[in-house]
Amino acid sequence: MNDIDIEDIDIESFLSELYMEGQINDSKSINKIDKYLNIMPETGKFLGLLAQITSAERILEVGTSNGYSAAWLALCTDEDVQITTIENDSKKVSAARENFLSTGLVDRIKIIEGDAPMILSEMSKSFDLVFVDMDRKLYLDILEDVIRLTRTKGVIVFDNAVSHKEEMTDVFNYFNGNSQFHTYLAPIGKGEFVALKKW
Ligand SMILES: C[S@@+](CC[C@H](N)C(=O)[O-])C[C@H]1O[C@@H](n2cnc3c(N)ncnc32)[C@H](O)[C@@H]1O
User: Fold this and answer.
1) How far is the first Cα of the chain from the last one, in angstroms, to the nearest whole number?
2) What kind and span of H or E run contains 186?
3) Separation of CA 7 and ligand 1 centre (Å)
């Protein structure tokens, strides 16, 4: 347990400072691997809203980075909502853990360090909301597991659906051509592709 009370945290200041940190880090980083590549603040609000609309109790994120989007999800939901997030870069895992510790969120956000396709294939408990924001080349590889891990009437969201739409064509085609899903491309932030699992 940690002794920081979430009530004591100025959520808006914390999130804007974390976002600024990410922007500064990314402008200074020459290698893409060192960039945090955070979602945009409006995407954080949107994810928080989806978490509430779906009455999410269990949320899965694929691609933690320094924890900015997971912090949004945690800070927009009740204390008993559990967030699991997967990241394979140990430096980013440490940065995220620091950020969760400093806000008292560490007990609510479980970071699993490792390769997402492998980890997802071994997971079995389902989630109400799944946010996918990782290496887009692997999206097709993880799709079946992401869908299996999403409960009926649960929601899957993919970031970068406008900013990198060419790289997402296979994902769009997969969901749009499948009557099990109701989809929507929300023009928010970098573009959020939302798929509701109808059954
Ligand atoms: C766009 S960033 C995530 C940003 C984060 N969602 C946020 O808004 O704060 C993508 C992250 O996915 C991680 N990643 C890429 N490939 C991965 C893999 N195979 N397994 C786990 N994490 C991976 C990267 O290290 C990177 O931190």
Assistant:
1) 37
2) strand 181-186
3) 29
Quick one: which of 85, 58, 24, 37 has its CA closest to 189? 37
CB of 39 within 6 A of ligand 1: the answer is yes
Best substitution site from 109, 135, 192 to test ligand 1's pocket, by max atoms within 8 Å of Cβ?
135
Domains detected in the chain: 6-197 (3.40.50.150)
Distance 134 CA to ligand 1 centre (A): 4
User: Using CA positions, which residue lies closest to atom 11 of ligand 1?
Assistant: 63
For residues 89 and 78, give the distance between their C-alpha atoms in angstroms, rounded to a whole number: 28
pLDDT in tens, the chain (199 residues): 445 555 556 888 999 999 999 999 999 999 999 999 999 999 999 999 999 999 999 999 999 999 999 999 999 999 999 999 999 999 999 999 999 998 889 999 999 999 999 999 999 999 999 999 999 999 999 999 999 999 999 999 999 999 999 999 999 999 999 999 999 999 999 999 999 999 9
Q: In this structure, what token pair is assigned to residue 54?
A: 């779906």
Q: Is residue 85 within 6 Å of ligand 1 at its C-beta?
A: no
Mind spelling out the 3-state secondary structure of 7-56? HHCCHHHHHHHHHHHHHHHHHHCCCHHHCCCCCCHHHHHHHHHHHHHCCC
Burial 121-130 (b: 16+ CB within 10 A, else e): eeeeeebbbb
